[in-house]
Design a protein that fits this description.
Blueprint (H helix, E strand, L loop, with lengths): L1 H11 L10 E11 L5 H10 L10 E10 L15 E4 L2 H5 L2 H10 L3 H5 L3 H6 L8 E3 L11 H6 L5 E8 L5 E8 L5 H6 L3 H9 L23 H59 L9 E6 L4 E4 L1 H7 L3 H4 L4 H5 L2 H17 L9 E6 L5 E13 L3 E10 L1 H27 L11 E8 L10 E9 L2 E9 L3 H21 L3 H15 L5 E10 L3 E8 L4 E5 L2 E5 L17 E5 L4 E5 L1 H4 L2 E2 L2 E2 L1 H10 L6 H15 L7 E8 L5
Antiparallel strand pairs: 1-2, 1-6, 2-3, 4-5, 5-6, 7-8, 7-11, 9-10, 10-11, 12-23, 13-14, 14-15, 15-16, 16-19, 17-18, 17-20, 20-23, 21-22
Helix pairs in contact: 10-15, 10-16, 16-17
């Protein structure tokens, strides 16, 4: 999980000017007990402590993941000085300026770090505070290795964020940026602490290091699973508000940016149309022309330079007249090509750019380059003298507007895909004796967040929750309600057991959030023991299907849609599953696929499942999707499918 976090940020954070990676190095650290570290890290920490013995409960800051531009930075084991930093006392912490300032700026006291206390997390499970930030890394007392690291690798700024885990230990992500970072930008990274905390929570009280001794050797605690479950439930409850606010804010800001860019592009297009209509009149009055008009002789020298050219290029007319045009307004890298083109025209009369409107790069007197639209026309004047008239127009605003529209569209599509992905589990869990598979197929080009969602999560030992639902609408409102539904279901499943009771909690949450919106869902609780028992509850959603042998039966449940009603009542349905039985959850995007007004329907779905009687969940889902695509050439609605099978005895 730690390596995935640093890898994603290392690849995603780019210098917008060069489109290259902005970070030279990124690392994720976690505090832990000395005796819970593997032998190699214990030996490393011992050396860092001057060879003095460390107590078993001494806190160490261990490097968990690293990515960077140097080969040795891509493996935590190759770090020469940061694999495990001993922090056995407040004095040891305060003796390391960067580590001390890191945790202080994150909002933690020295004793919080040196003497981890799980009760701090229980009292404030969403604790992920400020941002560690050094605006100017060079010369800073809080950034070590100034010559060998900061100056050598061009480190401009350093920032980090972090939080606390249920065990009381802390995590921190530290980034060394080759791009200068402002304080305003640095503050944005505080929200990422919530996402990273969610990514690390499932593993907070498990063995972090593969070759570490079992945790029971240190703190035998039969109530650990219950304590972790309660901590996670409380954390999800607190983090949901922040997560929802971030999702909504990002989507709304992107929508506003896209609309602003489109408005500017439309205004520019209208302005250009008006300019074209008046161009015939304006070109007759060169002295008052808005476009640059520059005349050049056959030797490449400037003969005339109108006021617009003087204003845009920064030369007075008398300064430009008589000078070589290439030296004044053409960037150096293009001058040789300009000379070859002039020589070719004088030799054989060929000129590929003449009498055409093209876009090129020009240069002002201060050396700043900018895009122009150019038309060059050869003219004969004063007998045999050959002149070239160039008409140039500064198109910086248009190019910038076009780039802004394109970038906004790309960002909007990327954020929509990212938001949709964040509303679905990144991977299905591994369950002994059960095979799982799922899919989500967005409608259209996927630039709008849909309302379909699914989830599989552990409730207790051999006790699992399965849910598939559909939220009303698309876009920002759908994303908000989907996040609310998913995390409410997870939290409720820990407190109440009956599926109908879990859905009742979801109904209340949706009603309080917005009674004018609704969602549908089917939720199942699977308990695995000597036999597998499935209890189902539903709220207005298409019923799950059970494939047993070659037969397929529907598993309807009683319960209205969720959200519009202040009170909600549903019933549970309980059944025993046998070896090879497959349960199939799906959204209405499957059955409501259309072909000339005809629906794919539940009957066709049942027939497809009958023909897949010996297939595993993944192959079954693939066969259903293939049948839907063959039936309907256009997908008008999102499709979500979740299926699991009790592993056949022979496997």
């Amino acid at each position: 999980a730690a390596q995935a976090v640093v890898g994603y940020l290392y690849d995603s954070l780019l210098d917008k000017d060069s489109d290259e990676r902005a970070l030279a190095l990124i690392r994720l650290y976690k505090t832990d007990r000395f005796d819970r570290l593997p032998a190699d890290l214990q030996a490393f920490a011992q050396r860092m402590n001057g060879g003095e013995a460390l107590a078993g409960d001494a806190t160490c800051l261990a490097l968990m993941a690293s990515m960077g531009q140097e080969p040795e930075w891509e493996d935590r084991r190759r770090s020469r000085g940061h694999q495990a930093i001993p922090l056995p006392s407040p004095a040891a912490l305060e003796s390391s300026p960067m580590v001390y300032r890191l945790f202080r700026q994150l909002g933690f006291e020295t004793t919080d770090v040196v003497s981890p206390d799980p009760s701090l997390f229980r009292r404030n499970p969403g604790r992920a505070c400020g941002v560690f930030f050094v605006a100017d890394a060079e010369g800073s007392e809080f950034v070590p290795a100034q010559d060998d690291f900061v100056r050598r690798h061009g480190i401009k700024s350093v920032l980090g964020f972090g939080g606390m885990l249920p065990s009381g230990f802390m995590f921190a992500v530290v980034m060394f940026s080759k791009v200068e970072v402002s304080a305003e930008t640095a503050d944005v990274f505080s929200s990422l602490a919530f996402s990273v905390q969610l990514a690390l929570l499932p593993f907070g009280e498990k063995r972090v290091w593969e070759d570490s001794p079992p945790l029971e050797n240190f703190h035998p605690d039969p109530d650990r699973d219950l304590r972790v479950a309660r901590a996670e439930a409380a954390a999800f409850s607190q983090l949901l508000d922040a997560r929802q606010e971030i999702v909504v804010d990002q989507a709304q800001r992107l929508e506003r940016a896209l609309q602003d860019s489109q408005d500017r592009a439309e205004a520019l297009a209208r302005s250009q149309e008006e300019l074209l209509r008046s161009e015939a009149i304006k070109t007759a009055i060169l002295e008052s022309a808005l476009d640059c008009v520059i005349t050049m002789d056959r030797d490449g020298n400037i003969v005339d330079f109108n006021p617009a050219a003087a204003r845009i290029f920064g030369y007075r007319r008398h300064e430009a007249t008589g000078q070589r045009l290439a030296d004044l307004i053409i960037p150096e890298r293009f001058r040789a090509a300009h000379s070859r083109g002039l020589e070719r025209y004088l030799k054989d009369g060929s000129g590929p750019i003449l009498d055409r409107r093209i876009e090129v790069t020009a240069m002002r007197a201060d050396g700043v380059e900018f895009p122009v639209e150019l038309t060059v026309t050869p003219v004969a004047a004063a007998g045999t003298q050959l002149l070239f008239s160039a008409y140039l127009r500064d198109i910086s605003d248009r190019v910038q507007a076009e780039r802004a529209v394109l970038e906004a569209s790309q960002r909007f599509a990327h954020v929509a895909r990212t938001l949709q992905t964040s509303l679905l589990p990144p991977a299905l869990p591994a369950i002994d004796g059960v095979e799982l598979a799922s899919t989500y197929q967005p409608a259209g080009d996927g630039v709008e967040v849909g309302g379909d969602f699914y989830d599989v999560f552990e409730i207790g030992r051999d006790d699992w929750g399965f849910v598939l639902g559909d939220v009303m609408g698309k876009g920002t409102e759908a994303a908000t309600l989907t996040a609310l539904a998913r995390y409410t279901l997870r939290a409720a499943a820990i407190r109440v057991r009956r599926p109908a009771a879990v859905l009742n909690v979801l109904n209340s949450a949706v009603y309080r959030h917005d009674p004018d919106r609704f969602c549908t869902a089917v939720y199942g609780r699977l308990r695995i023991g000597a036999s597998a028992h499935l209890t189902l509850g539903g709220g207005g959603h298409p019923p799950a299907l059970l494939r047993t042998g070659g037969d397929v039966v529907s598993l309807p449940t009683r319960g209205p849609i969720l959200g519009p009603f202040e009170t909600w009542k549903g019933a549970d349905r309980r059944l025993t599953l046998h070896s090879g039985d497959l349960v199939f959850f799906y959204s209405d995007g499957v059955t409501e696929a259309r072909n000339s007004g005809e629906l794919f329907g539940a009957e066709r779905l049942v027939e497809v499942l009958k023909r897949t009687k010996d297939m595993n969940p993944k192959d079954t889902i693939d066969r259903v999707l293939e049948a839907v695509r063959d039936f309907s050439s256009t997908q008008n609605d999102d499709i979500a499918i979740l299926a699991f099978r009790i592993t056949p005895d022979e496997q």
